[in-house]
Input
Amino acid sequence: MDEILNKIARCIQSGKIDKVSPYPPDMKGEDGADELTKFALENGIKPDQVLDLALIPAMETVGDRFSRKEIYVPQMLMSAKAMNSAMKHLKPFFQSGETKRKGKFIIGTVAGDLHDIGKNLVSMMIEGGGWEVIDLGVDVSTEKFMKAIGENPQAAVGLSALLTTTMENMKKTVAVIKDSYADTRILIGGAPVTWEYCEKIGADFYSPDPQGAVNYLKQLVA
Ligand code: B1M
Output
């Protein structure tokens, strides 16, 4: 198991998407994150093992290397593409939850922020937890969140931010939503977000991971 997980992690770190992708040149012709993840799942490795032991640690390494200026945005983008090619195989497992819907959940990455890997994971797990998910995508303006809430007034809302700069937009969005929809439950997350920040901006809940988000929503309807 370790060998295949290490290979997947290497593909994420190097940005090797699939067998036919020419990047990086030294891995040309080799299986990529796409084929290796499919192989791992077909051979009994659990989806959460692929996620927790290969994909997420590999992305952390990518982030660290970017911080140390060992890699730049194009390489980070290739790693994100490799991660997405692996995640498409995990998606059906995370989405095969109960069919009866518990409620609606609106989610998006806040304005100015294009990071969607974490948001997509949260979205998948919540859908798997039995919620109808309205995913507004990335770079979502406050107005777009407000429109979606207006159309789905009972929905809970999730905001994701990965940049310290866009956390400010998260704050603004929370304030505007709470101003018009005081009862709407707002859950926030993303690498730079903390409980302290959650309390400061008046959101209802902070979760560092998708499972915490699922648990929070579960107790809302318990
Ligand atoms: Co960007 N980026 N990036 N990036 N990127 C970070 C976030 C950074 C920490 C890298 C670094 O410097 N070490 C840094 C932010 C620094 C800061 O603000 N303090 C950074 C930067 C600077 C930038 C640019 C500004 C770079 C530039 O252009 N000079 C630029 C900004 C673009 C923009 O958004 N406007 C940029 C661009 C990009 C890419 C497009 C190349 C790519 C994103 C592709 C994509 O998402 N489709 C990218 C990537 C891949 C990263 C890193 C390497 C990985 C992010 C990721 O996907 N992690 C990242 C470094 C890092 O995080 N280690 C970095 C894996 C993912 C599973 O984790 O998203 O944290 P995460 O989600 C977690 C939890 O946070 C939580 O659950 C998830 C699973 O556990 N969670 C929630 C997330 N949302 C939640 C919501 C919830 C609950 C939990 O409830 C609603």
Notes: The mean pLDDT is 93. Strands lie at 104-109, 132-135, 156-160, 186-189, 205-206. The two ends are 38 Å apart (CA to CA). The pocket of CO-5-methoxybenzimidazolylcobamide is lined by residues 56, 59-60, 62-63, 66-67, 73, 76-77, 79-80, 107, 112-119, 121-122, 158-160, 162-164, 187-192, 207, 209-210, 213 (CB under 6 Å).
